């Protein structure tokens, strides 16, 4: 298992492309005709209300679900992702929301769980420990020791370990499902720094988040899903919080959107603000 960056796509090149992706669960059309591109060295935020289809899309990309239709192109080739280990082998890593770390095992053991490095017939503890430090250094991560159990780490440090683990195997795309949902302010800032480090190393990053402040702080582009469809797409510098909320809720006269719009309304006309007073 190599963790070199030699075969990574040049920054700006599309590494992952979805076209016409659909997925139905019984009567629920969870995704219809979804498209999304992710470039090397770019953070794409995937946002949307509960039930919008974000997790389903992540699971389609990571091979947990087979899509009913559509194409996934990775590194220039059309691919079928047969399962999470196949995704990992292709170069698509996922940090799921529950992190799936083993509390009683140390950092090294968690990083290489199920993908231990061998030296001949033996587990290469020294090699793995070195690689663990290298990965954490890549992330400028603040972990006191790689030989302490996960149980002794803070929430932010656990997220760090889960992100570092996703880098084992040298992926080109990393997906993070709500990485800051359970974190306080300082730890959130730490994780946002990690995401910037991922971008700097040339990875394509897909960030799922409910937190518009996080999204606006770290994303380059924002893809909005609503009811399983592409609702809007913004470059982060072009989208106000009000516009984002409006795209997520699907109504500019919706009460949530109008509240957000009033907060950032200093440059907007009075008529616009007044029309926002009606409840949606
Ligand atoms: N395994 C499943 N079985 C049935 N319905 C599902 C399943 N997973 C998701 N759904 C439905 O698909 C829609 C999209 O869900 P999801 O992708 O979890 O949205 P999000 O992550 O944006 O909140 C929802 O209506 C949800 O109830
Ligand atoms: Mg979800």
Q: Give a list of the ligands.
A: adenosine-5'-diphosphate, magnesium ion
Helix amount, in percent?
A: 25-40%
Q: What is the chain-wise order of helices and strands?
A: EEEHEEHEHEEHHEHEHEEHHH
What's the quaternary structure here? Answer: single chain
Using only C-alpha atoms, the radius of gyration works out to 20 Å
Strand order of the biggest β-sheet: 6-9-10-3-11-12
What fraction of the residues are assigned to beta strands by DSSP? 25-35%
The averaged pLDDT comes out at 87
Question: Short summary of the structure?
Answer:
This protein is an alpha/beta fold and 280 residues long. It has ten helices and twelve strands.
């Amino acid at each position: 298992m190599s963790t070199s960056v030699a075969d990574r796509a040049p920054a700006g090149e599309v590494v992952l492309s979805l076209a016409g992706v659909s997925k139905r669960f019984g009567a629920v059309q969870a995704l219809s005709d979804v498209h999304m591109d992710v470039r090397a060295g770019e953070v794409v935020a995937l946002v949307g209300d509960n039930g919008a289809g974000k997790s389903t899309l992540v699971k389609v990309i990571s091979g947990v679900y087979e899509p009913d239709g559509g194409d996934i192109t990775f590194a220039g080739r059309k691919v079928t992702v047969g399962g999470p280990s196949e995704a990992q082998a292709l170069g698509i890593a996922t940090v799921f929301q529950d992190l799936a770390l083993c509390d009683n095992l140390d950092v090294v053991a968690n990083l290489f769980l199920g993908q231990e490095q061998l030296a001949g017939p033996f587990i290469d503890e020294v090699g793995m420990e070195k690689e663990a430090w290298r990965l954490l250094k890549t992330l400028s991560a603040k972990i006191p020791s790689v030989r302490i159990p996960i149980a002794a780490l803070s929430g932010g440090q656990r997220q760090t370990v889960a992100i570092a683990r996703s880098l084992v195997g040298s992926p080109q795309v990393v997906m993070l499902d709500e990485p800051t949902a359970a974190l306080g302010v300082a730890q959130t800032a730490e994780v946002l720094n990690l995401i910037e480090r991922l971008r700097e190393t040339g990875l394509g990053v897909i960030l799922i988040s409910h937190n518009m402040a996080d999204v606006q702080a770290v994303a380059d582009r924002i893809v909005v899903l609503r009811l399983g469809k592409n609702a809007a797409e913004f470059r982060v510098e072009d989208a106000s919080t009000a516009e984002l909320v409006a795209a997520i809720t699907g109504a500019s006269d919706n009460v949530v959107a109008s509240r957000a719009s009033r907060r950032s309304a200093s440059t907007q006309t009075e008529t616009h603000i007044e029309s926002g007073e009606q409840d949606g």
